[in-house]
Specification:
Elements lengths: L19 H26 L7 H29 L2 H24 L5 H29 L5 H29 L2 H21 L14 H13 L2 H31 L4 H25 L5 H21 L3 H29 L5 H30 L1 H19 L34 E8 L5 H18 L3 E6 L6 E8 L2 H8 L5 H12 L6 E5 L3 H6 L3
Antiparallel strand pairs: 1-3, 1-4, 2-3
Helix pairs in contact: 1-2, 1-4, 1-5, 1-6, 2-4, 2-7, 2-8, 2-12, 3-4, 3-6, 4-12, 5-6, 5-9, 5-11, 8-9, 8-10, 8-11, 8-12, 8-13, 9-11, 10-11, 10-13, 12-13, 14-16
Amino acid sequence: MIQVQSTAGRPSAWAPLRLPFFRWLWLGVLVSNIGIWMQTVGAQWLLVRAPNASALVSLVQTASALPIMLLALPAGALADLFDRRLLLIFVQVYLFGVSILLAALTGAGQMPPGLLLALTFALGAGLAVQTPGWQATIPELVPRPLLPSAAALGGMNVNLARAVGPAVAGLLIARLGVPAVFVANALTALVFGAALVLWRRAEPNAGERREHFLPALLAGGRYVRHAPIVRRLLLRAAMFIAPAMALWALLPLVASQRLRLGADGYGIMLGALGVGAVAGVIALAPVRGRLSSNAMLAWAGVLYAVVLAVTVLVPSLVAVLAVLVFAGLAWVAVLSTMNAELQLFLPVWVRARGLAVYAMVLFGAQAAGALLWGLVAERTGLQAALLISSAAMLAGVVAGLFWRLADTTGMDRGTAVYWSDTRLAFDPRPETGPVLVSVEYTVAPDREAAFLETMDRVRQSRLRTGATRWELYRDGERPNRFVEAYRVPTWDEHLRQHAGRMTGSDRQSEEAADALSDPAPRVSHLLPPSASAASGGG
C-alpha cells in the first residue's frame, strides 16, 4: 500500500499516486517519455558515423529543445485559455503522425541528416505544446499540500523514462534497426492519448470570461518580467543546464569513440543516468528536510562537475557507469527542486504561462548548450570539451552563492479576491482602454520611509497582475499627499485584477500600504473620453 504520510508527518513522496486520475495520467506520461528518449537515441545513432558527427549528434538535442524555447509561451497561453485535456489529446495525434512518417522514411532509406533534424524539430514542436499543458494540469489533479510530492514524481517520471527508454532503444536498434524505435515512439503517444480520453476533467467555471490569446500572452510575459523570485529561479536553472548539457550531447561520442561501444552499450550508459535519477527521487526525500534549496543546488552542481571530469579521464566502462548514476541523481535534484518551487509559487491564473517560460529557459539552455559543446568538441576534442564544461559547472556553483533563491515558505500564494466592485457612472466595454487607475494616499512624515518601502512591493504586484506602467508622485503643495498611478491596457484587464489575479501576498502588501494612509486611500478610474459616449449611461 502507498504510504500517504511519512513518520515526520510530511506527505509521502508516493501519496499523489493514490489519486486515480493522477496515477493513470502519470503512467501515460511515463510511457510517452520513454518513447521520446527512444526516439532521441535512434536519431543520434543514425548520425554517429556521419561526417562532422560531433556537431550533428549534438544538433539532435538542439532540434528537440529549440521548439520548446520558441513555442512554449504561446503553448502556455493556450493551456491557460482552453480545455487542457482536448489540447493534450490533439498533441498525441500529431506526435503519432510525425513519428510514423519518420519511421517510414527511415525504413525506406530516405533520411538524410537535414530531414532527420527537421522531423526531430517537428516532434519537439508537439512537445512544446504538451509540456506546459501537462505541468499546469498537475495542480488540478492533486491538492496543494501534495504538490511538492507530485513535482518530485514528475522528475522521477522523466528520469525513469531516461533509464528505460535508451536501454530499450539500444536493444531495438541492435536487433530490428532504427525504424523500429520510431514506430515504438508513435505507439507511446497513443498510450498517453488513451489515458487522456479516459480522464473526466472538471468543467471550468461557465461564468468566467476567457482571455483573448494575445493579451493573455502579453500578461504572462509581464508576470515573469516583474516577479524577481521567478526570474532568479530561471537564472539558476540556466546556470546548471547549460554546462550540464555537455554530458548529454557528447555521451554518444564517449560511448563510440572512447569506450568502443555499440548502440546497446550507449543505451546502457543512458540507463545508468536514469537509474541514478530514479534513485535520487527516493534518496533525496529525507535530505530535503535537512538541506535548503540553495544547498541542494550547490551540492548537485559540485557532484555533476566531478562526473563530467571522470567521464573522460577514466577509460573504464564500470567507472563511467558508476559516476553516471551520480550524474542522474544530481540532475533530478536540481530539476525537481526548481519545478517544485515554481509549482508552489505561481498563482493559478498564470501557472501554465509561468511554467512555459520555465520550459523555454530549460530547453533553450539545453538547445544552446548542446550546440555549444558540440562545436567546442569539434575545435578542442572530446576530452577538452568535457573538462571545460566541468570548470563551467563549478563556476556556476560559485555564482550561485551570490545569486541565491528566495525563501518563499511564508508567502500566501492562494487566490485573494478582495478589491471592492467598481462603481462608475457608466459601463465601459471590455476592450475600452487604456485605463489609468490613481490611488491617493495621505502619509504622515514619520511613516514615509515605511510607506515608500511598502509601495515597492505594491508596484511589483500591479505590474505582475496587469499594469503596463506604474508611477508614484508626491504633491508639491501638500508633501504628505502621494498619488499612485498605474496604466492597464483595457477595462477587461483591470477587471481581471479585481477578480482572480491577486494572491494573499499581494493583499498583505496592499493592506500594509493602506494602513499607513490617514485617511484611507481614495481610488479613481480614468478612461478615454469616448468611453462614456460609446457605452451609454450605467
